[in-house]
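cache lookup: miss for this entity combination. No prior model stored, computing from scratch. Input as submitted by user K.M.:
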Amino acid sequence: MNFGKQLKEGLITQNPVLVQVLGMCSTMAITTSIMNGLGMGVSVLIILTASNVVISAIRKIVPDKIRIAMFIVVIAGFVTCVDLLLQAFVPAIAESLGVFIPLIVVNCIILGRAESFSYKNGVGASFVDGICQGLGYTAVLLVMCFIRELLGAGTLAGFRIIPEQFPVGILTLPVGGFLVLGCLIAAMQWALSKSKEGK
Amino acid sequence: MSTANKEKVQMDPAYIIKLTVTLLVTCVIVAACLGGVNAITAEKIEAINKEKTEIAMKAVVADPDNTTFSDKLDLTDEMVAAAGSVTLDSVYEAQVNGQSAGHAIKVVASGSQGKIEMMVGVDAEGTVTGVSIVKNSETSGIGSKVMTNMPTAAGVGVLSQFEGKSAADGTLTVGANVDAISGATVSTRGVTNGVNAALAVAGVLG
């Protein structure tokens, strides 16, 4: 098990959002404020890690033919747990994330990792993979939230930084989400190809 | 032929039973876990929702400190029909010192981006005492101005302008007796429809 390598993959070379381009829907929809991004990122991190561990633990007894159905049942179970817990203990976040928490069930990052990693690797490695991929997802969300909230609404975590008349409102709309995400993916691809040339 | 290489579907009954049982057992285990979590959280979620409704109701009555609310009233067909195209969610009776002081009526109107859940307070005389938005998905920075009660060109909050209106004012219409926020006419119209429906329901309640 190589924690450093997996962390680097999760954050940079195999980043779920910017390189694998998974989980676009939630990335686009909820990155309008830092608190949303943090809530969503941490929820996905927990669900991804938990489902990775469980799927990796049961991978030997799961018949190949029904593995996807089994994955979905396990993932849906964890998502519902997190949804209920959020509603009960942090209602403010549950309210602002709304339907996007239940939709984590169909977030392709989680099913993608189940299929491509935890179904083939041990429990320990899958646990680390869940954390690293989750961190990669959260990091991108936070960067997008930072840009969209600061420039689009003029606030950071609810505190006003830029006076009300100056922010570029379009950044908080879906259009702004596409623009910011597009720029981030482009920057990431540029940086990756640069570092490849360097070698 | 590619079909020759294709894996033959295994129809062995033992194998099919194995698949079914594995899936069934997984589902049962997951369901049991969820039942456990639900048992812990159900009460808390209920309390939070109740508190939220209470706050929304207090915001729309004339004398929030002395007002208490009944449990949800049973909705009659007549009330639902009075709301027309707007969905009637629930009705609570407001009481001051045990006396009926009107109703808090929760309706769901359509805005420009989706549903607008709103609470409308109507006093015993059938006059609107307040309007508050419980939940909405209006465009941030445009329709959201209506949701946060920003002032219209006339200088009155777009939600506050409904206070004092009653069925005697006739059907409320944007442009006639309701001012819209410029750029957010559809959202304002949605809220106006909600208030009209609430007044109609209050008329049925008497």
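stored under new cache key. Strands of chain B lie at 67-69, 87-96, 99-110, 115-122, 128-135.
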